[in-house]
């Protein structure tokens, strides 16, 4: 399949799955519940459906009379289902949709049940959407869409997706794989079930079976002619007439006339019928008993036979227990598909950064230390700002076209301002210089809503916060929240000197001041941070958070690991990208799934830059592998992750990549672009 087509099918498949999923799960689960109805109904309602063997049945008229006495307000007689020569109850239905189950031998009432009541009746009601006007059309439409879009689409995508094999699948990849595998095995069963259910929902669908097989469409019922003064035939007379035409009938369904000129519609199933819905059709004049139509099953047209087979297949009455189990497995696979499919979709979405932007006014710009300014941003109308958690950062869109990420360092409980701290550096593209030089109090600037890749672990019993230089910004916000919660924590703040220590006064006057230790690299050796001493006792209840220059963070993390700190308790935030270019970088190819075109990525260019030159734009923000804006799905190939956005676990799966900085370990990457 060509990549563009596959891409569109996949998109269609996802959205159709999400939109139709809930309805489909309802149809499938209720369908699954009814698969074993023929076996379970007589067991659950044994007293209603089973009688002791007897040799002679009472007349139907007697049974109807007794049934009417049991259900005096039931209205007109509409339907009888009987099983001659068996020990099954005769079921009589009136216009109130109540079944009255009678013992055909004794004429005794066995019980009553609502057509759409009880366990199976309710399942049938839900399955066919009988509770809604034109419910069968709703159920049929969803089923048709399911058949076309999901099963065929999913099946095709599965085959053309070339799933990677030979790998141990876990984490996010496992549900995706489970989704595909379940879909593959279930698709044939589900497709069969869906297609065989559609003739009951749509007349046009049923008629197309006749047209395709060159069969005549079902003829309308012939009218009965009521001679003056002649009453309708009794039910027993109707039944005896039918029996005379098919003595070996093992089941009869008699639909009684509603209007004066309606004939009696009888469906008979012979003892030699090939399946449970192999009807022979009989129409009798309601008054004279004249045979208006009699079509034994064998004489039915091919189209009619196919239609009847679809009924039996859809109800799971073909293939015995094996057929029923297959149908059950197919139906139960729908909730599995919904769970794995929606889960996969949501997980993917949750990795997509939000693009919403805010226009904020710079209310205050403060020099906090040598080369460091804080910027207080507020809504121009004084409105509340979107909430944030400790460790969150915002994108700041600069007039120069640059986008930079800065951690929020104020108390997360504050809702009317964002505070960021910016160190002026010799940044190659001038982001921090633009912040320091171009922005004046009163300037209005565009920012992204807060995102958090560096959250506090709420279950941690103790927290150890370590900040290096301007890396103090997210750490400050964490300290504020931990202190407000009364949590146990300590903070170490390393900087060059007092002059280079931002937010010094704020920290010294904070309620958590006693928990903070300052370390100055230009100060006495004795007060410098001794990582080995600090991290030598890896308390399993403590989580460590570090933010600062890359080298500083590497030193902290390496020392912690050497001292036995587990990965799950080590958390870091890059306030600048940790991209490393290497002389060992080589060229590789990138193929776009949507067009199939292949682009060569030079060893000194990023994927984003190369594609941009070819007119293909990928949204970016930091261009340093920090923000996640350019996150892209990898359909094939092995990425060489150079970002600081994806977790170790995400990286292991190799199905996502930050193309602004990451490269490839394989000769080709196929991207979902
Ligand atoms: S643009 Fe920020 S991670 Fe790629």
Task: Describe the protein.
- The strands form five sheets. The chain has an eight-stranded antiparallel sheet.
- The protein has four domains: 1-51 and 116-216 and 305-349; 52-104 and 221-300, no CATH class; 352-574, Translation factors (Elongation Factor Tu (Ef-tu), domain 3, Beta Barrel); 588-671, Beta-grasp domain (Ubiquitin-like (UB roll)), CATH 3.10.20.
- The longest helix is centred in the N-terminal third of the chain and has 32 residues, at 3-34.
- Helix 1 (3-34) crosses helix 11 (320-350) and helix 7 (173-201) crosses helix 11 (320-350).
- It has 673 residues and is an alpha+beta fold.
- A hairpin with a 5-residue loop joins strand 11 (392-397) and strand 12.
- It has 18 helices and 27 strands.
- Helices cover 36% and strands 22% of the residues.
- It is elongated, with a radius of gyration of 37 Å.
- The two termini are 16 Å apart.
- Bound molecules: FE2/S2 (inorganic) cluster (FES).
- FE2/S2 (inorganic) cluster is lined by residues 620-623, 625-630, 643, 645, 658, 660.
Mean pLDDT: 84
- Give the name of the CATH architecture of the largest domain: Beta Barrel
Relative helix content: 25-40%
- Structurally, the number of domains stands at 4
- Strand element count: 27
What percent strand?
15-25%
The CATH fourth-level homologous superfamily of the largest domain: Translation factors
Q: Record the strand order, biggest sheet.
A: 4-3-2-1-5-6-7-8
- Assign the structural class, choosing from mainly alpha, mainly beta, alpha/beta, alpha+beta, or little secondary structure: alpha+beta
Distance between the termini: 16 Å
Shape: elongated
Q: What's the alpha carbon Rg, rounded to whole Å?
A: 37 Å
| Largest sheet features | 8 strands, antiparallel
CATH-defined fold name of the largest domain: Elongation Factor Tu (Ef-tu), domain 3
Low-confidence stretches: 161-173
Total helical segments: 18
What is the CATH C level class of the largest domain, in words?
Mainly Beta
Provide the list of bound ligands, each named once. Answer: FE2/S2 (inorganic) cluster
């Amino acid at each position: 399949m060509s990549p563009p087509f596959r891409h569109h099918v996949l998109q269609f498949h996802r959205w159709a799955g999400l939109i139709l999923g809930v309805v489909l799960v309802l149809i499938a689960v209720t369908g699954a519940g009814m698969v074993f109805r023929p076996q379970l109904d007589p067991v659950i309602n044994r007293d209603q459906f089973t009688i002791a063997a007897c040799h002679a049945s009472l007349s139907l008229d007697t049974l109807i009379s007794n049934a009417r006495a049991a259900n005096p307000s039931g209205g007109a007689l509409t339907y009888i289902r009987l099983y001659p020569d068996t020990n099954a109850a005769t079921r009589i239905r009136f216009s109130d949709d109540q079944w009255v189950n009678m013992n055909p031998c004794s004429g005794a009432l066995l019980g009553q049940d609502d057509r759409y009541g009880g366990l199976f009746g309710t399942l049938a009601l839900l399955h066919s959407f009988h509770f809604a006007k034109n419910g069968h059309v709703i159920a049929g439409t969803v089923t048709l869409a399911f058949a076309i879009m999901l099963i065929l689409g999913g099946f095709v995508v599965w085959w053309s997706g070339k799933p990677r094999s030979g790998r141990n699948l876990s984490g996010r990849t496992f549900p995706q794989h489970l989704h595909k595998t379940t879909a593959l095995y279930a698709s044939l069963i589900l497709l069969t079930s869906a297609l065989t259910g559609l003739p009951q929902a749509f007349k046009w669908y049923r008629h197309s079976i006749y047209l395709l097989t060159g069969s005549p469409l079902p003829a309308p019922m012939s009218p009965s002619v009521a001679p003056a003064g002649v009453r309708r035939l009794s039910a027993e007379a109707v039944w005896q007439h039918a029996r005379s035409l098919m003595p070996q009938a093992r089941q009869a369904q008699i639909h009684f006339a509603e209007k004066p000129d309606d004939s009696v519609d009888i469906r008979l199933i012979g003892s030699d019928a090939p399946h449970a819905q192999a009807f022979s059709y009989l129409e009798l004049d309601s008054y004279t008993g004249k045979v208006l139509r009699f079509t034994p099953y064998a004489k039915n047209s091919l189209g009619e036979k196919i239609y009847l087979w679809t009924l039996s297949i859809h109800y799971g009455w073909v293939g015995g227990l094996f057929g029923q189990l297959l149908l059950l497995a197919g139906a139960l696979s729908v909730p599995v598909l919904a769970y794995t499919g929606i889960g996969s979709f949501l997980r993917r979405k949750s990795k997509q950064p939000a693009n919403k932007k805010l226009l904020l006014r710079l209310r205050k710009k403060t020099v906090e230390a040598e080369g460091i300014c804080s910027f207080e941003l507020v809504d121009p109308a004084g409105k509340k700002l979107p909430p944030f958690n400790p460790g969150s950062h915002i994108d700041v869109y600069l007039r120069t076209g640059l986008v930079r990420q800065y951690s929020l360092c104020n108390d997360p409980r504050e809702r009317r301002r964002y505070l960021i701290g910016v160190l002026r550096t010799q940044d190659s593209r001038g982001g921090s210089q633009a912040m320091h030089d171009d922005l004046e109090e009163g300037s209005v600037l565009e920012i992204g809503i807060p995102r958090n890749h560096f959250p506090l672990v709420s279950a941690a019993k103790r927290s150890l916060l370590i900040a290096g230089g301007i890396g103090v910004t997210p750490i400050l916000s964490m300290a504020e929240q931990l202190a407000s919660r009364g949590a146990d924590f300590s903070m170490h703040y390393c900087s060059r000197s007092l002059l280079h220590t931002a937010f010094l006064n704020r920290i010294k006057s904070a309620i958590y001041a006693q928990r903070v230790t300052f370390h100055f690299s230009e100060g006495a050796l004795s007060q410098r941070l001794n990582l080995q001493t600090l991290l030598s006792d890896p308390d399993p209840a403590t989580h460590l958070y570090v933010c600062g220059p890359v080298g500083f963070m590497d030193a902290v993390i390496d020392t912690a690991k050497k001292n036995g700190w587990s990965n799950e308790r080590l958390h870091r935030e890059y306030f600048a990208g940790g991209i490393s270019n290497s002389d060992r970088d080589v060229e590789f190819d990138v193929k776009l799934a949507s067009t199939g075109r292949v682009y060569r990525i030079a060893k000194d260019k990023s994927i984003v830059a190369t594609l941009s030159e070819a007119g293909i734009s990928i949204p970016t923000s930091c261009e340093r592998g920090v923000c996640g804006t350019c996150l892209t799905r990898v359909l094939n190939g092995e990425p060489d992750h150079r970002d600081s956005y994806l977790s170790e676990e995400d990286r292991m799966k190799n199905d996502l990549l930050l193309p602004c900085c990451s490269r490839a370990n394989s000769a080709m990457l196929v991207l979902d672009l």
